[in-house]
Amino acid sequence: MMEVILKEGERIDQLFSSDVRIIQNKDVFSYSIDSVLLSRFPKMPSRGLIVDLCSGNGAIGLFASTRTKANVLEIELQKRLADMGQRSIQLNQLEEQVTMICDDLKNLLHHVPRSGVDLILCNPPYFKSHKTSKKNVSEHYLLARHEITTNLEEICQVARHALKSNGRLAMVHRPDRFLEIIDSLRTNGLAPKRVQFVYPKLGKDANMLLIEAIKDGSIEGMKILPPLIVHQENGDYTDTIFHTYFGINSQGEPVND
Q1: What is the pTM of this model?
Q2: Residue 116 and residue 70: Cα distance in Å, rounded?
Q3: pLDDT tens for residues 166-180?
Q4: Which of 84, 151, 226, 229 has the smallest number of Cβ neighbours within 10 A?
């Protein structure tokens, strides 16, 4: 892989299960487990077009690219994050497959054909923006975590116009917004089909959910998948999560996907 110039505060992290390297900066943006899980959640189209909305430093789209031959378009509003993502694309020599666009997701149809996208991935801002909201000091994290420049309803609207009929939207979000997510999807002609709740440990409340919806699909037949547990009682990753990060289980043995 080629080397790229790192800027102040940046480092290169690697997701060993996919051999993808990502430029990170803890003061600006770093991907976390929600990005990794989302990139593994939906079935990838073998070809066609995938869009990664709210792409941050491009981690989700880059992780997903290793599972498909489809073209991947990443769209990120913040110039600093889009620049990090673009350099990560170059670092992994994926310029022929992955493209980073610095733009507002409202303008997605300026970059893709209407009803022309096979799959949209989105790790959106989780928190509604209120004056009383506890907001991170960093502007980059503030925009990534709070619904300031976009919101759940707008993301569903954009997906409705961009997806092919039977195209899919896959998101990671917070369980406390589950009913709102379902309502927003259905209002925009997106039928929820697969839901998986993610738990930090067995016996704890869920702190994430993964959801996949199909454009123009039947409202019947939604599946609630088995719970996904992140940590064992001793704090180590469960075998499922260990495999997601490293491609092996905690005993160093390969695990079938």
Answers
A1: 0.89
A2: 13
A3: 999 999 999 999 999
A4: 226
